[in-house]
Amino acid sequence: MINYIFYHSTAAPNSTPDDDRAIVHAAWRANHTQKITGYLVRHGSNYVQWLEGPKGSLDRLYEKLGKDDRHQDLEILASGERVNRVFPSWLMGFLQHDDHLYVPLKSAERVTTDQAEYVLDIMKSHAQRRLCKLAL
Questions:
Q1: Structure pTM?
Q2: What is the domain range of residue 122?
Q3: Domain with 130 in it: what CATH number?
Q4: Which segments within 1-136 are labelled E, that is strand?
Q5: CB half-sphere exposure, 65, CA atoms < 13 A
Q6: How many structural domains is the chain composed of?
Q7: CA distances for 58 relative to 22, 69, 79, 97, 115, angstroms
Q8: What are the tens digits of pLDDT across the range 5-39?
């Protein structure tokens, strides 16, 4: 079994694309040693991120993320265990998503399985397209 966290946060008010690149590059460096994989989506000023790995590694990472001033208002939307990783080969994928992306952003609106699967489908589709381009 593999643990996962699916969370939402809001970008810092003065956030730039350079901040997004720095986040992803830092994840690439750190996640390998912690056996963490995942995917980050930015939609406007909102982030949603799927992280998967050993529970202790995820707990330490989420605590570290809570102290990162490049975003704020972190909220876990879903967490638990899965049989397999969703993103086994991605230390951290990234998607700037400009289309409609619905994820409830209030704790009173817990993410349903269908909503989480919708976002995961977007992430997986983008990851697959990227892998195809890299293979060319």
A1: 0.77
A2: 2-135
A3: 3.30.70.100
A4: 2-11, 37-43, 46-53, 71-82, 93-96
A5: 28
A6: 1
A7: 20, 19, 10, 24, 22
A8: 988 898 999 888 888 888 888 888 888 899 999 88
